[in-house]
Design goal:
heterodimer; A: about 100 residues; alpha/beta; 5-stranded parallel beta sheet; B: about 120 residues; globular
Amino acid sequence: MTMALHILDSNNLQTFNRCVRCAVANDSLLLIDDGCYLGCDQTLPTTLNYFKVFALITDVQARGLVEKINGAIRQIDYVGFVDLTAEHDKIISWSYP
Amino acid sequence: MKILIIQTKVPYANWRAESALNFIMASSAFAEQVSVLFSDDSIWQLVTAQHAEQINHTALDKSLAALPYYEVKHCYVEQATAHHYGLTERDFYLPIAMLDHTATQQLITEHDLIYHF
């Protein structure tokens, strides 16, 4: 089974919903840049449970979200980012706009 | 003259938040009172423990924290937005007042000039 890595770089909800609609179970979602704010959205946990969710720790720290982001989200560094891209068959960048 | 600046943007996506800050500081020099409403996602400008140097960005939080020294002493956030993100007063480095929908409308009527960033 092929697995996709979805990379989300904004907190735009329309983009997030588009990403969720296109994703299937076992896909991974990586939050980078302003996408990290989505990890703090109290209305999204159920949707986030659908994926394996990661967030880039540099971007999380920069925005002051270390203590605020959903605990189920794994915070990874750039090495982990590279690993994720290698582990998945395809990578989809949901850039905004 | 009372000025209200309505912020709407997250701190590091683009230069909007920084432009707004420059405008706030400049207007504080001549206005009788300058107030700032951190609306929607701009609430993230106020959270503690930001480390903008990690992404090679100017630390916006350090400048915003100086607003009281510019006589900008009225900062507001919308209760609904704070609740949406699970944020409370303790998560902010500036003293802020939480506003419900009616209070936000009231705030706008009380000011003479409104700028939206």
